[in-house]
Design brief:
Number of helices: 12
Distance between the termini: 74 Å
Number of strands: 10
Mean pLDDT: 91
CATH topology of the largest domain: D-Maltodextrin-Binding Protein, domain 2
Radius of gyration: 23 Å
Helix content: 40-55%
CATH superfamily of the largest domain: Bordetella uptake gene, domain 1
Number of domains: 2
Strand content: 15-25%
Order of helices and strands: HHEHEHEHEHEHEHEHEEHHEH
């Protein structure tokens, strides 16, 4: 066979292979060919926005395309999440989802317009952070056991503040009450800052707070940390036990953030994205930034993330049902 015939046959063979491949496979082989958008379901300036921008900057080079952050806030993150759930599953529109939008909301709302477990393909659960149970430094509550004793002897008297219904702070407290068989009084505020100010002012007893937000008050001696909600001691709060170590077996609660694609995104695209994110999480500047803010680097694979989300939805659904919080 001469050279010309071999070239002609090779050309037809390649064309035949291309026709045999599904459209998604062909797209995945050349992806990405245009800029990628990460939707942040909150206004600019928060931790989710910062995380999305840092991750976007880090993966832009390896992927060879700009990564743009688009803020679509509203309804506790569900507006932005719903937008991405309905986007084309081509890898060009992603979501930086959080505990509320991609787990707790499904437990709280019958009218949620999307399913966290069915309408998204996770790329990676990127970071997590436990909360910390804090009281005023002049409070009579010195340990978790003190709180439990008081709550059992004085039902519906121990108050805790949160940034609102369905937040990780609220649900961590509900889980605390469920596991300990106590009834705590929830006082919702418009944001963590307002709750914190009332705690410092003596209007409420306690708060399951963000470690970064409360750390300066703990360091200055105005707040006393009783326990962290994670599964191990936190590096910013050395010597502070976990809630489980303080006496509540099986208790753990985290606030987390992760990168999600619409369901049906080609696996090759998810794998490419995950590889870029995983490499980014190893960089010294991102490691330093996360540590400074008290974040724990997770970097779960797509498969690990999918199972994690399913477990989170099941966990918070149980808590919501037990507390009678379903809308």
């Amino acid at each position: 066979m001469d050279v010309l015939k071999r070239k002609i046959l090779a050309t037809f063979a390649a064309a035949g292979l291309a026709m045999a491949l599904p459209a998604g496979s062909l797209m995945a082989q050349s992806w990405p060919e245009e800029p990628i958008t990460i939707v942040v379901p909150f206004p600019p300036g928060g931790s989710t926005d910062l995380l999305a921008r840092k991750i976007g900057e880090a993966i832009s080079g390896p992927l060879g395309q700009p990564v743009v952050v688009e803020n679509r806030g509203g309804a506790g993150g569900t507006v932005g999440a719903n937008y991405v759930a309905n986007a084309d599953p081509d890898g060009y529109t992603l979501l930086m989802g959080v505990t509320g939008s991609n787990a707790i909301s499904a437990a709280l709302r019958d009218d949620l317009p999307y399913s966290p477990t069915e309408d998204f393909d996770p790329v990676s659960i990127v970071i997590s952070s436990p909360l910390v149970l804090v009281v005023r430094s002049d409070s009579d509550f010195e340990t978790v056991e003190d709180v439990l004793t008081y709550a059992r002897e004085n039902p519906d008297s121990f108050t805790h503040g949160t940034p609102g219904v369905g937040t990780s702070m609220h649900m961590s407290a509900e889980l605390f009450g469920l596991v300990s068989d106590t009834s705590l009084v929830h006082v919702p505020y418009q944001g963590s800052a307002a709750a914190l100010q009332d705690l410092l002012g003596g209007q409420i007893d306690a708060m399951f707070g963000d470690i970064l937000v409360t750390s300066e008050y703990i360091t200055s001696g105005r707040l006393r940390p009783l326990a962290v909600t994670g599964t191990q001691e936190h590096f910013l709060l050395e010597g502070v036990p976990t809630v489980e170590e303080a006496g509540l077996d099986g208790y753990s609660a985290f606030s987390w953030q992760g990168l999600f694609a619409p369901a049906g995104t080609p696996p090759q695209v998810l794998d490419t994205l995950y590889a870029a994110v995983s490499d980014a999480l190893q960089s010294d500047d991102i490691q330093a930034l996360f540590r400074e803010r008290g974040f724990l680097v997770e970097g779960m694979s797509p498969a690990e993330s999918k199972q994690f989300i399913a477990d989170e939805v099941a966990k918070w659904t149980e808590v919501v049902d037990a507390a009678g919080l379903k809308n």
